[in-house]
Q: What sequence folds into this?
């Protein structure tokens, strides 16, 4: 029990440090006198609420920022990213900026799926996003998609069913990767994924389902791109924003979210 409490306290302090670091930098970046005052007022109010929302998500679950970044970069909660501190900060910046921008664009409650340990899965209202982080600027988007297809059979049956039963599912390829051919890959058909389920215990509904009856009625999965350059572009043009709606338009443009919200 003592070890458990110490571990929890350690992660709590680590989470606080990571979030404080990110939001302090954000505060600094968006406190310039040249920025529109109406926009700044709206933005800071939104950011403060977003920070509180993240704290609530972490405190009400077994999630930690470390487990989240492991899912984001390694597609496995149990594999430590083992990055230098400066590199870690950059990836947390990518991820937290992406979550913030999604929240600004879609304006719904953010939920982080806790049970699935192999992939970072978030929901905003009826929209499901599977976020695939990357740390290799030579990795082509095709390779990222192929890695996801190979990973998919290892997902829990409950997660496969959640993806199958969601009408609006998007993969977001994020971070550092080769973005040259991203325009050619905008969707992934469900039949390209292995939806076969592991045998369940006392759950006939799961046992009756198979790959065919899952994929036959499903829309394709959208593929979206949140390259670090796209995320940075949203911040670089902040002088042009007169209000939060202007920022939302820029986010939708960079992340091509028009069809999802």
A:
């Amino acid at each position: 029990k003592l070890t458990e409490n110490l571990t929890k306290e350690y992660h709590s302090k680590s989470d606080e440090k990571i979030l404080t670091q990110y939001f302090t930098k954000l505060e600094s970046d968006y406190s310039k006198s040249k920025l529109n005052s109406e926009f700044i007022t709206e933005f800071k109010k939104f950011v403060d609420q977003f920070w509180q929302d993240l704290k609530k998500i972490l405190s009400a679950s077994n999630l930690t920022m470390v487990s989240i970044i492991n899912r984001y970069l390694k597609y496995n909660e149990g594999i430590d990213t083992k990055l230098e501190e400066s590199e870690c900060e950059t990836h947390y910046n990518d991820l937290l900026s992406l979550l913030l921008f999604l929240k600004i664009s879609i304006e719904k409650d953010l939920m982080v799926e806790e049970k699935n340990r192999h992939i970072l899965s978030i929901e905003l209202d009826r929209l499901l996003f599977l976020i695939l982080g990357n740390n290799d600027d030579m990795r082509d988007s095709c390779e990222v998609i192929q890695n996801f297809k190979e990973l998919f059979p290892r997902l829990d049956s409950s997660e496969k069913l959640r993806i199958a039963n969601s009408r609006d599912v998007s993969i977001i390829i994020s971070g550092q990767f080769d973005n040259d051919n991203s325009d050619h890959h905008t969707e992934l058909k469900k039949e390209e994924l292995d939806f076969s389920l592991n045998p369940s215990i006392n759950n006939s509904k799961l046992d009756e389902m198979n790959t065919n009856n899952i994929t036959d009625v499903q829309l394709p999965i959208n593929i979206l791109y949140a390259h670090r350059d796209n995320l940075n572009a949203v911040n670089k043009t902040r002088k042009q924003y007169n209000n939060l709606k202007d920022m939302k338009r820029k986010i939708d443009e960079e992340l091509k979210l028009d069809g999802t919200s």
In short: The chain is about 50% helix and 15% strand. The mean pLDDT is 88. Strands lie at 110-112, 120-124, 127-140, 168-178, 187-188, 221-227.
